[in-house]
Amino acid sequence: AFRVTPQPGVPPEEAGAAVAAESSTGTWTTVWTDGLTSFDRYKGRCYHIEPVPGEADQYICYIAYPLDLFEEGSVTNMFTSIVGNVFGFKALRALRLEDLRIPTAYAKTFQGPPHGIQVERDKLNKYGRPLLGCTIKPKLGLS
């Protein structure tokens, strides 16, 4: 689920649909591969939108992605698809990933580090929280 703040004049339904498209099959240009596969099979869908209580013009947009969109066993592929480019989308004033639910069958395809999570946590001196990493881009901000 994403917390979405649309630009003025952009309805929340349009913003939610845009996030779903941009984070799955959407692109800003026409590419020759468009005709090779069925977009319906791979596109994300915004299936529910609710206003954030006490916050003007903020909405929680629930988006479902087909598992065929992601490579099995690749956390990197999944996160790159879902949050890779969508944060710079011009139809939005602000966007934040609030919740991510991974089906058990898909989560079981993740093998984890070859020497165990405890070794990774000890190397990083980080405990009691998820370990995630990504390339920091200026447009994402650091807060």
TrEMBL record:
Assembly and partners are described as:
Heterohexadecamer of 8 large chains and 8 small chains.
Q: For this UniProt entry, which residues form the secretion signal?
A: none
- Which organism does this record belong to? Setaria geminata
InterPro entries with a match to the protein in the record: RuBisCO (IPR033966), RuBisCO_lsu_C (IPR000685), RuBisCO_lsu_C_sf (IPR036376), RuBisCO_lsu_fd_N (IPR017443), RuBisCO_lsu_N_sf (IPR036422)
Give the EC class as a word. Answer: lyase
Name of the protein: Ribulose bisphosphate carboxylase large chain
Q: Which GO terms describe its cellular component?
A: chloroplast
**Ribulose bisphosphate carboxylase large subunit C-terminal domain span:** 116-143
